[in-house]
Amino acid sequence: MANFVLRLPATSLRSFSISASSNDSGAVPGTSTTQNGGPVILELPLDKIRRPLMRTRANDPIKVKELMDSIKEIGLQVPIDVLEVDGVYYGFSGCHRYEAHQRLGLPTIRCKIRRGTKETLRTLQLKWAQDSNRTINVLPSPAQYHE
């Protein structure tokens, strides 16, 4: 299995589409029930990743600072997990790594992207809330992400 990194321009992107294929037919993964829709590693602009859980806890500032130092020295070693639903990217892990990239002024972050449905998104949000003993709004409106 090969990993590919796609770097996107830091300019304002209104919409974009990404596809990858590991088979000989060149078909887009996830468009056929016979293909394996496994995760893909890509660089995404930070402003294209919605963080539906970001207001539920504060990050440890010491851990963020340590990550910033490490990222400056050797780059990000572990991509954050992102769920793509209908062309929208939702980040559920890597809060400290995401904040470190923001504070460093980096325009993109390496992501492990899995495709899912709105139901998958709801399930992940509810599971995270239950595991963390927190309450959250399931599927907040898009306006809440642009406050």
From TrEMBL:
Gene Ontology biological process: cellular response to oxidative stress
Gene3D superfamilies found in the cross-reference section: Conserved hypothetical protein from pyrococcus furiosus pfu- 392566-001, ParB domain
Catalyzed reactions: S-hydroxy-S-oxy-L-cysteinyl-[peroxiredoxin] + [protein]-dithiol + ATP = S-hydroxy-L-cysteinyl-[peroxiredoxin] + [protein]-disulfide + ADP + phosphate
Top enzyme class: oxidoreductase
Keyword Disulfide bond assigned: yes
Domain ParB-like N-terminal: 42-134
Enzyme Commission numbers on file: 1.8.98.2
SUPFAM superfamilies in the record: ParB/Sulfiredoxin (SSF110849)
Keywords of the record: Antioxidant, ATP-binding, Disulfide bond, Nucleotide-binding, Oxidoreductase
GO molecular function: ATP binding; sulfiredoxin activity
Family label: Belongs to the sulfiredoxin family.
Official protein name in the record: sulfiredoxin
Organism expressing this protein natively: Dovyalis caffra
Organism classification: Eukaryota, Viridiplantae, Streptophyta, Embryophyta, Tracheophyta
